[in-house]
Amino acid sequence: MDRSTNLDIEELKMTREQYILATQQNNLPRAENAQLYPVGIYGWRKRCLYFFVLLLLVTMIVNLAMTIWILKVMNFTVDGMGNLRVTKKGIRLEGVSEFLLPLYVKEIHSRKDSPLVLQSDRNVTVNARNHMGQLTGQLTVGADAVEAQCKRFEVRANEDGRVLFSADEDEISIGAEKLKVTGTEGAVFGHSVETPHIRAEPFQDLKLESPTRSLIMEAPRGVQIFLNADTIRLGNLPTGSFSSSPSSSNGQQTVYELCVCPNGKLYLSPAGVGSTCQSSSNICLWS
């Protein structure tokens, strides 16, 4: 009981001392010549600050309005901008697009239900380059011609991929099953023509003609002409005669082969297992 009483008395003493100290500090005399300085922005500085704050606010509002207008006009969306759409496979353009500078892409293809159109006021040029940047191939579609510059030009079939037409510096090859020339003047060859078979179309005549020079057909084993017709006309065609050698048997050979000399003369040669025109071609030198 005495201990708790002592603690209360000590607390009262401490509170009294704090009160006296606080009262003494408030009763301290103040200096007579003390000056008071106002704290803050006043006058023209305050007006300039308000002006700059207002100008900044107007600028922010104008920028926000311009940004919203650009987004609206350019049709910005989450997927892209306007006719430009960004997909997982690349970029998709819808409608007509104009490119003012070179376009570098890996692949260009149209939609499944519409064609791909490349249009230019002058020409359309497609270039192919190697890893060093050198030009290896060029395709130019112009108003007057279509030009292709490459080491080898090929046209392949859509189904099996076989080569229908190929051209390089050495030769031109046509791999189609049939070559058809529909011009009224036919086909003109400046040099020799090598072919295993010449055939006219059904119900059409086959005509070999040399208007100003001779027509020559040569073969190492002879030239065979099979005419399955009722009437054969050989106008102004000279004929040659065949003289059998003394060693040949008389009256035993009954089958002959019709042969043609380079000058157009015809002669008969004894028929054999194969063609005997080449062995008897010396007759053309006699006539």
Based on secondary structure, the structural category is alpha+beta
Distance between the termini: 170 Å
**Mean model confidence by pLDDT:** 75
Shape: rod-shaped
Largest sheet: 3 strands, antiparallel
Number of separate strands: 11
User: Which bin fits the share of residues in helices?
Assistant: 10-25%
Q: Give me the side-by-side strand order of the main sheet.
A: 1-2-3
- N to C succession of SSEs: HHEEEEEEEEEEEH
Radius of gyration: 54 Å
- Uncertain ranges: none
Share of residues in strands:
15-25%
Give the number of helices.
3
Task: Please describe what this structure looks like.
- It contains three helices and eleven strands; from the N terminus they run ααβββββββββββα.
- The chain has helices at 2-26, 44-73, 283-286; strands at residues 80-81, 84-86, 91-93, 124-129, 135-141, 146-149, 153-156, 163-167, 172-174, 256-260, 266-270.
- The radius of gyration is 54 Å and the shape is rod-shaped.
- The strands form four sheets. Strands 1-2-3 form a three-stranded antiparallel sheet, with no helix packed on it.
- It has 287 residues and is of the alpha+beta class.
- The model has no long low-confidence stretch (mean pLDDT 75).
- β2 (84-86) and β3 (91-93) form a beta hairpin.
Would you summarize the structure shown here?
This protein has 287 residues and is α+β, with helices and mostly antiparallel strands. It contains three helices and eleven strands; from the N terminus they run ααβββββββββββα.
